[in-house]
Amino acid sequence: MKAFAVSFRVAAATAFVFAASAAHADLTLPLNCTKSNSVQAFTQDNLDSFDLVNLSVRAKGNATPVGEMLTGGNTGATFYRAYSFPVTKVVAGSNLAIKSGSAVGSALFFDRTDDDTGSKFGLTLANFTIDYVNKQVTADITPMGGVAMAQQPIYTFEVDSALALKYKFPLTVTGHEVLKNLALTPVAKAALISSLQLPDIALPALDFNFGTLTQDISTNLRSTCASSKPYVAK
Length: 234
Fold this sequence. Notes:
The structure is a single chain. The protein contains three helices and 14 strands. It is an alpha+beta fold and 234 residues long. It has one domain. Strands 1, 2, 3, 4, 7, 8, 9, 10, 11, 12, 13 and 14 form a twelve-stranded antiparallel β-sheet that branches. A two-stranded antiparallel sheet has the order 5-6. The longest helix has 20 residues.
């Protein structure tokens, strides 16, 4: 196992170095066995709006909640301020420029109960990818009991702290970035309204800032590799 770990780290670090010297070809780098994570942190406005319509948020697949579970004061909806997704791969172009990063196998399930009728509605966002070329986040969108729409744009974003990869001889590559002002796309808004049967009072909240995405990349190894199998909503 120790030999495998050293070999994997050497391979990962070598791949990053190779990407820096590659003139044209893209290079896909598997990172699911490394301590590389993407964390979405919602704003307080988001959490208040979830509570307003009795909307709970649950981590699925590889995703894990960050911090303590919060309970809405108005409806009892439950959610966390942030969720962490293992980064499973990045695609690098020339000079270590990252073209995309993916958290395949991670998902968030949005679960809403209508206070008046008791009806339950749900929507899953899964298999996230940050597309740096088009400056958007994509994901599979699946209404509860419905059919998945593969890799739809769900957020646009602004760069707060650009990703800078650092190579430390001989085995370690690290990187950190923060994306801010996540804004729901028209596709995501339409899916949320339809799948969750959101009341009119909730619609202005879809224009809120949906927080930040913070990426920390490392070639240090996880104790257990994260699955890179796409999450399929049940």
